[in-house]
Amino acid sequence: MKRQYSKKYLVWLFPTVVAGMIFLFSSQHAEESSHLSNIFVQILLQVREKLGVFPQVTDVSLLHLFSMLVRKGAHVTEYIILCISFLTAFWVSGIRGKGSNIASFVLTFGYACTDEFHQLFVPGRAGRFTDVLIDSSGALVLSLIVVLVMHSRTMRGKRVRRRKSK
């Protein structure tokens, strides 16, 4: 019995580790963060070149736009993973339903707020509410998907019960 009891609490290490990783990424100086994003952009451009799918990108403003999209996409992905980790922790802890979905989103949104506040103290970084919204957008989409899945399962269960009762 003790083993199952400890699993309920150990699963909360997952969101803690994800939050810690986000904190470490946010602690990087602006130049270091941009450099990491640009490495990823260069890899994508090399893959594109080898596949020959997209036209050559030489305009510097397009490269900056592409780099920004990669950075913002990474932020959205980080926060989707954080929200999934909260949902998983609630699920394993036995807390299920729309309450856990709402709590997961609220915790993710709250962490995005604290992360942007943290970035106010990192050289070259800025804490912006628009970034909170961008970060949280992935968690919001995930939460809406969870609501739709839960709703469809509920409706399917009601249809099955109606058929059985006839």
From TrEMBL:
Keyword field: Membrane, Transmembrane, Transmembrane helix
Sequence ranges assigned to domain VanZ-like in this UniProt record: 12-148
Keyword Ribosomal protein: no
Pfam families per the UniProt record, alphabetical: VanZ (PF04892)
InterPro entries for the chain: Phosphotransbutyrylase, VanZ-like
Transmembrane feature ranges: 9-27, 76-95, 102-121, 133-152
Family annotation (NCBIfam families): vanZ_1 (NF037970)
Annotated protein name in UniProt: VanZ-like domain-containing protein
